[in-house]
Prior knowledge:
Layout: H1 2-10, E1 14-16, E2 28-30, H2 32-51, E3 56-59, E4 64-66, H3 67-73, H4 75-78, E5 80-85, E6 92-94, E7 111-114, E8 117-120, E9 130-133, H5 138-143, H6 145-152, E10 158-167, E11 182-192, H7 197-214, E12 222-226, E13 238-246, E14 249-260, H8 262-266, E15 292-294, E16 298-300, E17 303-310, H9 311-322, E18 323-328, E19 332-337, E20 346-352, H10 358-372, E21 378-381, H11 387-397, E22 401-405, H12 407-412, E23 414-419, E24 425-429, H13 433-441
Helix pairs in contact: 2-9
Glycyl-adenosine-5'-phosphate (GAP) binds near residues 136, 187, 306, 310 and 312.
Amino acid sequence: xxxxxxxxxxxxxxxxxxxxxxxxxxxxxxxxxxxxxxxxxxxxxxxxxxxxxxxxxxxxxxxxxxxxxxxxxxxxxxxxxxxxxxxxxxxxxxxxxxxxxxxxxxxxxxxxxxxxxxxxxxxxxxxxxxxxxxxxxxxxxxxxxxxxxxxxxxxxxxxxxxxxxxxxxxxxxxxxxxxxxxxxxxxxxxxxxxxxxxxxxxxxxxxxxxxxxxxxxxxxxxxxxxxxxxxxxxxxxxxxxxxxxxxxxxxxxxxxxxxxxxxxxxxxxxxxxxxxxxxxxxxxxxxxxxxxxxxxxxxxxxxxxxxxxxxxxxxxxxxxxxxxxxxxxxxxxxxxxxxxxxxxxxxxxxxxxxxxxxxxxxxxxxxxxxxxxxxxxxxxxxxxxxxxxxxxxxxxxxxxxxxxxxxxxxxxxxxxxxxxxxxxxxxxxxxxxxxxxxxxxx
Length: 442
Ligand code: GAP
């Protein structure tokens, strides 16, 4: 973990937020390379959900959430963690995360602590007009269910996908970006006919494993964890967690839950007409009946299968898998981030051999702009004049290709292309660079 954290800071992936003022605990900023990696991971998820499935639609809902949404979802009452204080060191911990150095007899009785961030809405702060920063992206998918069904004419089964910020006032944020207070989720709510939920659940577990494999987190690095009944969230009939061996231990990367008809049922009016399976709180505030027409059985409240992944945890897993220290001849070594090309923050670096040679520099800029125009991600023109140093840097940040423009290029229009993983260099014509690049990156 320490080496990964150091690399992330040194190369501009991830910084502690407000570091110059001593930081803000559990909050991180994503630097020039971090934002590219994050965007690429989110784009891969969006593509696999929304673009590759005609029965999945996207949504980008508000972060500020009407408190009624979270009252009926159960968050106001149950989104809590047990908290204890250590009378000896004066620190506060989540009950299951007390360090060994604190003695049992020094701990207070656990108290429930609600993890939601509350904020004032409007100009008068008298405590009556407030909203929450959403603790999960899911709820606004449920409250928009009718809007999306009406505007897209969807029929079961179908899904609504969303990527966005979520906020939790974690008692003990820790392990770099693993447990933080501000993070992003990639959540799909997949609506199915009651009775089809168990098959759909199993099928999404398999699909999500394959997706992680395509991001460079192989299936054999993930363990499936059947969440025991007494640990299930209040809405869940069954949850399977994808557990990944993070640098600090085996922990949840993504949860895939069968949320039954709990959420739509909870946010619905006239609940007594809906034949709900889940036990829900009587809703006196909703103005919408969240059911959908199903050919065989009239109006039904669908069951929901929810694959929910954290972007930051995804980044940590992807970075951890990619981080490699390789021995080289002459007792040397190199750090290389073997990221999948579609996730790499920089797709290719174009490097002039000589910093001040106008012809070489101009040609390198032209190649950069031609590859950039392909729209496959960021290409950089790297004019350090030091090829060895550039290769080292691009190995460390995971750039799949380095293209060097030299004196031979001026004579015969060929460039040297160096592959990040094999370090092999091949000479190809400038005309071939686009095809070569596209094949490698796509
Ligand atoms: N909508 C369901 C839900 O929010 P969750 O298991 O609480 O379920 C889903 O969260 C995912 O969000 C987790 O698997 C994890 O990847 C991510 N996540 C949750 N809390 C997090 C935190 N404090 N920091 C970073 N990621 C978090």
